[in-house]
Amino acid sequence: MRLLAYLRFRIAALFQRSSLRADLDEELLSHVQHRADDLERSGLPRPEAERRARIEFGGREKYKEEIHHTMGGNFFGTLWQDVRISLRVLRKSPGFTIAAVLTLALAIGANAVVFGLLDALILRPLNVPNPQTLYTVEHGPDKSQSESYLDYLDLRDRNRTFESMILYNIIEVGFDTGGSPSRSMGYEVSGNYFDALRIQPYLGRFFHGADEHGPNSAPYIVLSYPNWHSRFHDDRNVVGRVIQVDKHPFTVIGVAPPSFNGTLLFFFPDFWAPVVNHEQFGGGNVLNIRNEQEFIMAFGHLKPGVTPAQAIADLNTVGAWLEKTYPKTDAHMTFALARPSLAGDLLGPPVRGFVAALTLLSALILLAACANLGSLFAARAADRSREIALRLALGSSRRRILRAVFTEALLVSVAGGTLGLLGSIALLRALSVWHPSPRYPIVVPVAPDASVYWAALLLALASGFLFGVVPVRQILRTNAYEVVKAGSAGVVAGSSGRRITLRDVLLVLQIAICAVLVTSSLVAVRGLLQSMHSNLGFDPQNAMVLASDLSMGGYAGENVPAMQRRMINALQAIPGVTSVGLIDELPLDGGAPNEDVFTDETTELVPSKAAAHTMNYKISPDYFHAAGTTLLRGRDLTWHDDKNSPAVAVVNEEFARKMFGSVDNAIGRFFKPEIGTRLQVVGVVENGKYWQMTEDQKPAIFTSCLQSPMNATSMVVRSDRDPQQLAVDIRTVLRQQDRGLPFELLTWPDQLGWALVPSRVATVALGVLGIMGSILAITGIFGLAACSVSRRLREIGIRMALGAQRREVLRAALGRAIKLLVVGSVAGLLLGVLAGRLLAFLVYQANPRDPLVLTGVVIAMALLGLVATWIPAQRALSVNPLVLLREE
Amino acid sequence: MNDQAQLLPGTLDLLILRAVSLGPLHGYGILLRIGQISGNALLIEQGALYPGLFRLVRQGLLKADWGTSENNRRAKFYALTAAGRKRLREETLSWNRLAGAIAAALSQQPEEV
């Protein structure tokens, strides 16, 4: 009840504020009049009596303020008053206001974007019910997520800790809805997929575990909502329709809800199809082969109350059983759990590292901005010391003045925060519709939401408080009497003497942070440039790549190599084409076929006896020529290395050295792949990059596509002709060969762009942060220099009148700013070099000790200093002592 | 001036209550009444009275009404409420106890301790 009464009183006070105020005014006036009546009665003339009465009454405004304060209920009233005054004050110095708001907008914007990334990629779980109990299963020392189908079945049936275990795998198929066939990527999944995830269909139905009756028994397909929307134009009658998937009929049975886009954060599938039909997706009949670990991602919900540790112990029990029962195929069956959203430990650690580094750097930006604004506010408080002193002398409380200063800081922070947030929303929206890969449905799911808005608002308010605090001491120490007596100049001279002030420390801090940012962005840019020019082991220039999958055209068995040979011959006949080669997976294209190899003497081909783990490519005879890979020793594969001749391989330098000691030793020697057929080394080629740009050198072998055929291939077409015209010819030739075969044609550099996406993204992000850091440093140095010039204008004028030279004037005006710049830059450079170790994880070939980078940082900081001090220096030099001295 | 004592903190409210207990008064009247009953021994800055008045009104110890003063001017008159009267009694008692105790303490001779 009392609380209610209190609230009512407060609210009433809020609304009756103006009537209260009038009431109070009248009462105080009445008091003064009564006193004046008495004084008049004692003989004073009326005007004199009134004057005396007013003086005796004391500080009217002060008492009114005090009364308002005792009345309570006017926290909001005072706040509103403060806001209005602050707005007026800020409007009076638009330069300061704009600089402050923009600085903060940049910093808050950067932080909001980074928080958006952090939220979307790390904090937010998958959009499925109960995501916190969802774990993906990894096994072996290298945290492999590939399982064979048989191992998966054993894991699914023998574990006792998962509710149900799901398998899924990314596949690419030819999708034919009646028009022209096109390539499409989706998931092949175990039948229990939707049930285990507890997803309900948007339209039609989903398939279930009960629909699986052995290989190719479930020709059903579920469409994703975006796919249904774009390819089927929201046609509700699509359910029940039969479409061709790799020339096999599949029935569309349902559409997934719009909120569900698969179980990877950044890869939105077009469809889901049962994994039991794997063979029809061009995968070969591998469901019954235990060592074909080609299915990624077994995962599922833990049962209620089961801890991850218990689940791991349980899986390891199954793993031990597998190792014992299938010693030939199953080794290293120890398990670990990871979050499925970033493909577990495949992408989790690098993405997390990247986002963590970004968070750190953007926090530094915000800190630098706060330092910048703090020194701006301190400078402003110093400039206003006379006004503050006057207000104190007139009876205003320090508390009230501090409130006003804080209100200003908060207004600036809210304005800057809002502006920054708007910018970050635009940027995040752009990011979320960005498709970095021309081929894969990769997305960055960072649509901004409420948590981003809150984060931006909180950061803005916190930083407003941070830089609002800076001038507090200054105001508390203001001695009204001294200031009014001496005039502002005297006080300023006192506080900006030789001593190190808070502003100096802030500026050095800010410049140091900026130098760190500039160092890291230069390191990143240089790393990217170097990675563009490092030896890939092939030459992407003047080459086009043609990706196709013959299973999409219904080819099988002996027809596959025959058709491939026909295509190669037809392409080679195009005028201007110098060579054409075929490979199962292009290097640096996301896929990385690899396997264990054994020495020729090994008889027991189990994983623990392997001599090396190597990349394993299948190529056509002319591939090395077309790809621009140099043959170091021996011979290339030929069209005679077919099924009827001995199995041979070309290996890379690293493989030769690892297996046989040297390149020369390798020619003519034998080794065994997992299937056991002896392979003879006939040639050695140069090393290259296979899986990613930043990898350590990996061994690789190349075997003939005639001796082990495959459906999905990329053909490299080398030609000096213009890619546009060449593409037209290539399309014509392919259409003559097979009208219904979907394919994809890109220049090799475009195709490779994808491999560079991570380091490009890192470089752009670091570059942007570096530029922001530079802007902040410029404004900070500019602020200090401009301030010191304007304060010492008189001194400069006198010096010039006494005959000082330009150099001496500049030294007097800017010496301090430049000294601080140097100290800050050196500190930042040292820190940057230390932080560079972190960068090495992100950016390929990042080397912060690179002399070029160090020189670059020094030059950049010097340039920043020059830009920032140019205008104040000009102002100092253009001082006309006569005008100046006359003004005072 | 020098023979006027500074007010102890918190005593202004008590003085106001006491002054008003003798009949409704406006602000200036209260000031005069305090001067009168204290023999002009206490120094109160005139304006300082008003925050105290507003505080007491807010606590419900005083009630205020506009009326016409003896000078024929509009003025706000303050009067005690029941709660105010009760508070005055309590405060007077506790003040007397305190004052008596302090006086006793100060009047002790060294040999009596």
How many helical elements of chain A? 28
**What's the helix count of chain B?**
4
Shape type of chain A: elongated
Biggest sheet statistics of chain A: 6 strands, mixed, barrel
Structural class of chain B: alpha+beta
Strand order of the largest sheet of chain B: 2-5-4
Largest interface here, residues on each chain? A-B, 25 and 19 residues
- Percent of residues in helices of chain A: 40-55%
By CATH, the architecture of chain B is named Orthogonal Bundle
Q: What CATH first level of chain B would be assigned?
A: Mainly Alpha
How far is it from the N-terminal to the C-terminal residue of chain B, by CA? Answer: 37 Å
Low-confidence stretches of chain B: none
The third-level CATH topology of chain B is Arc Repressor Mutant, subunit A
Q: What is the radius of gyration of chain B computed over CA atoms, rounded to a whole number of angstroms?
A: 16 Å
Terminal residue distance of chain A? 65 Å
- Sketch the topology of chain B as an H/E string, one letter per element: EHEHEHEEH
User: How would you name the CATH homologous superfamily of chain B?
Assistant: Winged helix-like DNA-binding domain superfamily/Winged helix DNA-binding domain
Count of DSSP E strands of chain B? Answer: 5
The gyration radius over C-alpha positions of chain A equals: 37 Å
| Helix share, percent of chain B | 40-55%
Question: Your description of this structure?
Answer:
The complex is a heterodimer of chains A (888) and B (113). Chain A has four domains: 2-73, no CATH class; 131-340, no CATH class; 349-532 and 757-887, no CATH class; 543-719, no CATH class. Helix content of chain A is 53%, strand content 15%. In chain A, helix 11 packs parallel to helix 14 and helix 13 (398-432) packs antiparallel against helix 14. Chain A starts with a helix and ends with a helix. Mean pLDDT of chain A is 80; it is low at 488-498. Chain B has a single domain, classed as Arc Repressor Mutant, subunit A (Orthogonal Bundle). Chain B is built from four helices and five strands, in the order E-H-E-H-E-H-E-E-H. In chain B, helix 1 packs across helix 2 (27-37) and helix 1 packs across helix 4 (82-107). Chain B is elongated and about 60 Å long. The interface between A and B is medium-sized, with 25 and 19 residues.
